[in-house]
Specification:
The structure is a single chain. The termini are far apart. Strands 1, 3, 4, 5, 7, 12, 13, 14 and 16 form a 9-stranded antiparallel beta sheet that branches. Strands 2-6-15-8-9-10-11 form a 7-stranded antiparallel beta sheet. With 260 residues, the protein is mainly β. The protein has helices at residues 2-22, 158-161; strands at residues 26-32, 45-46, 65-68, 71-78, 90-92, 94-96, 106-114, 123-128, 138-143, 150-156, 172-176, 183-190, 193-198, 201-207, 223-228, 246-258. The longest helix is centred in the N-terminal third of the chain and has 21 residues, at 2-22.
């Protein structure tokens, strides 16, 4: 009996050591603290307007962008004459690191406080630096709708969007946030999975699986980061202009590489 207990203990310790050894290790390679008087154009570019829901109100209007007290502030406003030549009812600010800063395998963390408003749709997400959507994939680190006290974290690809394989495996999760304070949103991009968390609490994991269907795990190529305030859309719904302007405050962005 004593020998059996000893073997069980030894095996348990060995298993624990093996599992610990399997935990990914990271090295911080870039940290953006927004301590200057404006955002660093070496790494960030204002997101241009497009036709999709998420970018159809993007604007380079200076009042939508501010760096103050160690925070990047991005705003969404009713365009009540702020930009007279612009016919968009709302205007929003957003930055990305496209062609300037990318990550292949590693971890991204963003600490931010999100002001709520009906129709507000702030987001932190990632797209491949080259390739077309949805074939190249999309990683949504955080999306918040309206006045929600939860955030959505989602994976998109040809497999999930075109083939509609949204539940094999589940391609999204949600996590509770403190709606009135800063929260830390993160994704770990690993060769075999994407691991999401909020405030250090695991929300969901999207694994690479064996399948004969196309495009299930296109991740593991250089991806850039997008941080943007969005207003209205088929998912978030209509905005209430009485609740605007609205803003998001980003304290920091940290990017880690995956150690071998």
């Amino acid at each position: 009996m004593k020998m059996n207990k000893m073997l069980t203990l030894v095996c348990g310790l060995a298993l624990g050591s093996h599992l610990a050894a399997q935990q990914p290790r990271y090295e911080l390679i870039w940290q953006e603290d927004f301590n200057g008087s404006t955002f660093d154009e070496k790494y960030w570019t204002k997101i241009p307007r497009g036709n999709a829901d998420w970018c159809r109100h993007m604007s380079d209007e200076p009042s939508l962008y501010e760096v103050k007290d160690g925070n990047l502030i991005l705003r969404g406003k009713v365009n009540d004459g702020i930009v007279p030549q612009d016919t968009a009812r709302y205007i929003t600010g957003g930055l990305y690191t496209k062609d300037k800063k990318t990550i292949t395998h590693g971890k991204v963390e963003i600490k931010a406080k999100l002001q709520a408003a009906q129709g507000a749709w702030p987001a932190f997400w990632m797209l491949p630096n080259t390739g077309t959507w949805p074939n190249g994939g999309e990683i949504d680190i955080m999306e918040r709708l309206n006045h929600d006290s939860i955030a959505y974290q989602t994976v998109h690809s040809y497999y999930t969007y075109v083939l509609k394989e949204e539940n094999n495996p589940p391609h999204g999760g949600i996590g509770v946030i403190n709606p009135d304070d800063y929260n830390v949103y993160a994704v770990e991009i690993l060769p075999d999975s994407l691991v999401f968390s909020i405030n250090g609490n695991h929300t969901f994991t999207y694994p690479r699986i064996e399948t004969d269907k196309e495009g299930q795990f296109p991740f593991g190529t250089p991806y850039y980061i997008l941080i943007d305030m969005q207003i209205e859309g088929s998912w978030v719904g209509k905005a209430n202009p009485a609740e605007y302007p609205v803003e998001m405050q980003i304290d920091w962005v940290k990017v880690y590489s995956l150690k071998p």
